[in-house]
Specification:
Layout: E1 9-10, E2 16-23, H1 27-31, H2 33-38, E3 42-48, H3 52-62, E4 65-67, H4 70-76, E5 81-84, H5 91-100, E6 104-108, H6 115-128, E7 132-135, H7 142-153, E8 159-167, H8 188-191, H9 193-204, E9 208-216, E10 227-234, E11 239-245, H10 280-291, E12 307-312, E13 315-319, E14 323-328, E15 331-336, H11 343-355, H12 365-384, E16 388-389
Parallel strand pairs: 2-3, 2-5, 3-4, 5-6, 6-7, 8-11
Antiparallel strand pairs: 1-2, 8-12, 9-10, 9-16, 10-11, 12-13, 13-14, 14-15
């Protein structure tokens, strides 16, 4: 089904813009505020947030209309599209709501906690003729996009192996209960593996064949899936591994030139102590306090979501501090990477191009479903102790 026409309006300079409402204004929602406000194709005009104090603060600080629920925002605000940044268990129902109202949707990853919900989201968007995009922001990181560009150029031949390693303190950051519950799309395999698997699919052509994984839960004081190691095969013969450890020991900054996940040097001094919140209310308060600064809009270096190493037939590629190192039989050269657009600005670029007819979206609902399938299958593989085939995969366009 063709996409519905986007009812854009003209500003005083004649530019055609899209009006966006944000549903959920936690760390992910707040991370999109500056990119939306600075984007030539969007205006942020409304927010749906059940926390009255936070909603009021957003209204006063940014001049947007405030609504207690998504349904209220859809009924009262003039929006063309919605960014859904609410907890994962709410995504399926809210995407269906927005699609039924004729609104295009960008939904935060993981797009859902079950494949059935993800399929229902894809179907709802198709029935309504609206665009569904899944915001896998780390595959928009400048070095990952540049790696894909080198692969497509063909100089190094076909991709044969890709390995990505990420070590953080994810488990011990402030969390809502559902962020730690795999049944609700929580734990590192759903919430961080979604980034890793999305990156690997982008670099290996998209169509994964199978996965064999082991997930770990080794801190009884913080029960959740806190680490995983996965081996993935792809159509065309490429293979990939994804390692994630969120228990706060070794840090990826030690693999990546002292640069953090979002492109900043780590804070000076010792690492903060592991979180041991006294009550869920205390932990929620800590999470809300962290939300405004958790994901910076700009950084002095490129994002460094762990170490990613691509092996092609005629050479290898990995990140440098501010670019890529390309290693071949002729030596090592550094390729500069442009930092003119942040990952979330690149997500918005893709969304706007899809809505304005400039280019079809890669990270659409079907792509998001394929990435989610890897998360689900990795956990199932760990539980069953075997390699599992994949059935929802799509190729890079």
């Amino acid at each position: 089904m063709a996409l519905a026409a986007v009812p854009r309006y003209a500003d005083g300079r004649g530019a055609r813009r899209l009006r966006v409402g944000i549903a959920g204004i936690g760390a992910a929602g707040q991370a999109f505020i500056a990119p939306l406000q600075g984007h030539a194709g969007f205006d942020w005009v409304a927010v749906a947030e059940p926390d009255a104090a936070l909603r009021t603060r957003m209204q006063q600080a940014h001049g947007v209309s405030g609504h207690a629920t998504l349904a209220e925002m859809l009924a009262q605000a003039e929006v063309d599209a919605v960014y859904i940044a609410t907890p994962t268990p709410l995504h399926a129902g809210q995407v269906a709501q927005a699609a039924a109202a004729g609104k295009h949707v960008l939904v935060e990853k993981p797009m859902a906690s079950t494949l059935a919900d993800a399929r229902a989201m894809v179907d709802a968007a198709a029935r309504a003729g609206v665009q569904l995009l899944v915001g896998h922001s780390h595959s928009h990181d400048a070095p990952i996009a540049a790696m894909r560009g080198l692969i497509e150029a063909g100089e190094l031949g076909r991709v044969r192996m890709v390995h990505t390693w990420c070590y953080t303190d994810w488990v011990h950051r402030p969390r809502r209960a559902e962020e730690l519950d795999a049944g609700q799309g929580g734990g590192v395999t759903f919430r961080q593996g979604a980034h890793q698997f999305d990156i690997l699919r982008l670099l290996c052509g998209g169509r994964a064949r199978s996965v064999r994984a082991q997930a770990f839960d080794w801190d009884p004081a913080r029960p959740t899936t806190g680490a995983h190691s996965a081996f993935i095969t792809f159509d065309g013969g490429a293979v990939a591994t994804a390692v994630y450890n969120g228990y706060g020991g070794f840090a990826s900054t030690d693999l990546g030139f002292g640069i953090s996940e979002w492109g900043h040097p780590p804070a000076a001094g010792p690492r903060p102590p592991r979180l041991r919140a006294a009550t869920p209310a205390d932990e929620l308060k800590a999470k809300q306090a962290r939300a405004a600064t958790a994901i910076p809009a700009r950084a002095p270096h490129q994002p460094f979501f762990g170490l990613t190493l691509v092996s092609c037939e005629r050479g290898d590629i990995r990140q440098s501090a501010d670019g890529l190192l390309v290693c071949t039989a002729d030596g090592v050269r550094e390729v500069a990477v442009s930092l003119d657009r942040s990952p979330r600005e690149r997500v918005l670029d893709e969304w706007h191009a899809a809505l304005s007819g400039g280019a079809p979206a890669l990270h659409d609902g079907r792509w998001g479903l394929a990435t989610l399938e890897l998360c689900v299958a990795a956990l199932a593989s760990s539980a069953q102790g075997c390699e599992l085939p994949l059935h929802e995969q799509v190729a890079v366009r």
